[in-house]
Design brief:
Layout lengths: L4 E2 L9 E3 L23 H4 L5 H8 L4 E3 L2 H7 L7 E3 L1 H7 L4 E6 L10 H13 L4 E6 L3 H12 L3 E7 H6 L1 H9 L3 E5 L5 H9 L7 H14 L3 E3 L6 H6 L2 H13 L5 E5 L4 H15 L7 E7 L4 H4 L1 E6 L8 E6 L21 H8 L4 E5 L1 H15 L5 H20 L4 E6 L7 H8 L10 H8 L7
Parallel strand pairs: 5-15, 6-7, 6-9, 7-8, 10-11, 10-15, 11-14
Antiparallel strand pairs: 1-4, 2-3, 4-5, 12-13
Bound molecules: pyridoxal-5'-phosphate.
The site of pyridoxal-5'-phosphate (PLP) has 20 residues, from helix 6, helix 13 and helix 17.
Length: 453
């Protein structure tokens, strides 16, 4: 029996992050100031982010060194294992080989601490005392609370009110790590008070929570703001996933044919695939297929447009060229909370636009069917987000069975589903709805995207 997992030692921890900007066929379009319509510079971002992260956002250097204190924190759970899904292969009777990179071994249970730790470190280095952020169901907020605690920073998390009330466990995790969690909209910011004046029972939204977290950071000298996906530096920090996976495939003496990952803002997908995409761009892995998977209820890549749009719902951030459903778009309440974002990381968008990667959109019932099949064969209960990837992996493996092909398929299992069991409950009870976004809703939200030359 060939081995079940490839485990690296701490000596194999990557020393540098990989910056795909150095290898793009053409450079990223600039980020635009919404007032002047000119490209923004470092000074525009300085109230919100420490200078080192602003530099990393824009750098064209291929490799960026990982500071030793960050690597030391990574050692708590990294390198993460690469598993061969023997039992799933047998259940599917497929000649394909299926691998998954398991990121649920981090303290917060997902890939998100890979960037949270780095961001907390650079803030600490530059004398910042507090970090604000927003969170939906709490995956990003818990990663940031964990990282801030590790580097002696305060964290303040604006949590969408409906989740704050209905999903207490991630909030309790954040508080256990010393974070302060407030339901958003709150009375603590001008933005929050304005919403509450109009609608005292507002359930909140990610867009409102972003506005509150950004306002607090912009108006306090000792406080900066942090984002858990989308931005270039966040995607770069996640490349430790793919760099380790490449080493693990080298040890196996294999190279994948198909890579799969879910996309919300694109950070786990990018972290896993970008180091392999380097090979594809350089011509070393020409046949490699890379598939991004999104929910049918929020089909950013497959049905959005490649335009300049705001990053937040309120329309206060700089304008970013990305695939977007329109910043005013509010997705249906599907269970993969981490995939409900109107935009997408600009690096992922550029690669999709240049046809380096593919994208598919799925309904949530077939996704949960795949999640349950995975749990019953491999044991791990996956989060709803990466289960989108599992659906595609299973379908590809079945195609391999039908065609007698021995492809090597790999995906990033970016988090466990231990806090998503109410979604499983609904699926198992046959109560999960499939939402397909009508084209008219997309057209309407896209009509509100600002016109840029
Ligand atoms: C946050 C999150 C996502 C979505 O974000 P990406 O930046 O696209 O990775 C997906 N899966 C899990 C487990 C998450 O926590």
């Amino acid at each position: 029996m060939p081995e079940t997992k490839v485990v690296l030692t701490e000596k194999d921890l990557p020393t540098h992050w990989y910056n795909i900007q150095a290898d793009l066929p053409s450079p990223l379009p600039p980020v635009i100031h919404p007032g002047t319509r000119q490209p923004i510079g470092p000074a525009d971002l300085a109230p919100l982010f420490p200078m080192e992260l602003i530099k990393q956002e824009m750098t064209q250097e291929r490799w960026v060194e990982i500071p030793e204190p960050v690597r030391d924190m990574y050692r708590l759970w990294r390198p993460s294992p690469l598993y061969r899904a023997h039992r799933l292969e047998r259940a599917l009777r497929t000649p394909a080989r299926i691998y998954y990179k398991w990121e649920g071994v981090s303290p917060a249970g997902s890939h998100k601490p890979n960037t949270a730790v780095a961001q907390a470190y650079y803030n600490k280095q530059e004398g910042v005392r507090r970090i604000t952020t927003e969170t939906g169901a709490g995956q990003w907020g818990s990663a940031l609370a964990f990282a801030c605690n590790a580097f002696g920073l305060e964290s303040k998390v604006y949590m969408v009110k409906v989740s704050y009330d209905q999903k207490p466990y991630r909030r309790i995790m954040m508080e256990t790590w010393g974070g302060t969690v407030v339901p958003s909209p709150s009375r603590e910011t001008r933005a929050g008070r304005a919403i509450l004046a109009k609608d005292p029972d507002s359930p909140g939204s990610l867009g409102i929570a972003i506005s509150e977290a950004v306002e607090e950071a912009a108006t306090r000298e000792d406080t900066k703001y942090s984002l858990g996906s989308v931005l270039n530096h966040v995607l770069m920090h996640q490349t430790v996933i793919g760099l380790e996976a490449k080493k693990q495939f080298e040890i196996l003496g294999e190279y994948p044919d198909i890579l799969v990952g879910c996309v919300g803002g694109g950070s786990s997908f990018a972290g896993f695939t970008f180091p392999f995409i380097q090979d594809k761009l350089s011509g070393k892995a020409k046949g490699l297929r890379i598939v991004a998977v999104e929910p049918m209820a929020c089909p950013t890549l497959t049905k959005g447009k490649y335009l300049y749009d705001f990053g937040d719902t309120a329309g206060t951030t700089p304008l970013i060229k990305m695939y977007t459903l329109g910043h005013s778009f509010i997705p249906a309440p599907i269970h993969a909370g981490g995939l409900r974002y109107h935009g997408m990381g600009p690096l992922v968008c550029a690669l999709y636009d240049q046809k380096v990667i593919e994208a598919v959109a799925l309904h949530q019932n077939p996704v949960f069917e795949a999640a349950v099949q995975f749990a019953r064969s491999e044991g791990i209960v996956p989060a709803p987000e990466p289960s989108h990837g599992i659906r595609v992996v299973i379908d590809e493996a079945i195609r391999c069975r039908e065609r007698g092909e021995r492809k090597i398929i790999a995906f990033v299992l970016c988090g466990h589903g231990h806090f998503d069991l109410s979604s499983y409950q609904r699926y198992l009870a046959g109560q999960l709805e499939d939402f397909e976004l009508p084209q008219s809703a997309i057209d309407e939200a896209l009509s509100l995207v600002p016109k840029t030359p």
